[in-house]
Write a structure and sequence with these properties.
There is one protein chain. With 162 residues, the protein is an alpha/beta fold. It is built from five helices and six strands; from the N terminus they run βαββαβαβααβ. β4, α3 and β5 form a beta-alpha-beta unit. The protein is globular, with a radius of gyration of 15 Å.
Length: 162
């Protein structure tokens, strides 16, 4: 079985501060260490410091500004092989969805904090109406599991199988 190449669109990861940056480092580092991916390319919005980056992970320089970040994300996705798009923040979901759709790849959408609370925001409702399923609901509804396997998954502070 060929290992997948992952493109990670994140606010911050290696070199960032706070809980989301730490989560992204832990999650991406675990993926690299367990051998399920061939490579991980990280595109952060912010990188205040330089940190050691695990093998198999390549972090591109931070890009501020939505347009510049979007252009670099699209160029990166099409210049390299990308099998899975990991979206580390709900506000990057439209860009991640576009890349996954254009590339014909799976999308993993990570939700943090209030993004994952039971009362969905308008943006969360739009994400769910487009066919994406919250990974918490997979076991309750076999039909949602089929959509999960076919299109993608929303991850609420957990790791779900690809």
């Amino acid at each position: 079985m060929q290992k997948a190449s992952l493109l990670a669109l994140v606010t911050d990861a290696f070199g960032g501060h706070g809980g989301i940056a730490q989560y992204n480092r832990d999650f991406l580092g675990a993926l690299a260490a367990c051998g399920v991916v061939s490579s991980i390319t990280v595109l952060p919005r912010h990188t205040p410091e330089r940190l050691a980056i695990p093998a198999l992970i390549r972090q591109k320089p931070a890009r501020r500004g939505r347009l510049g970040y979007s252009v670099i994300a699209l160029l990166t996705a099409f210049r390299q092989g990308t099998d899975i798009v990991f979206c580390g923040h709900l506000y990057m979901a439209p860009l991640a969805w576009l890349i996954a759709r254009l590339k014909g790849t799976k999308l993993v959408l990570q939700m943090h904090g209030i993004e994952a609370w039971p009362r969905p925001t308008r943006l969360q409702r739009v994400a769910r109406q487009s066919g994406w399923e919250d990974s918490d609901n997979q076991d309750e509804n076999p039909a949602s599991r089929r959509r999960h396997d076919r299109r993608g998954v929303i991850v609420a502070q957990e790791v779900a199988a690809f």
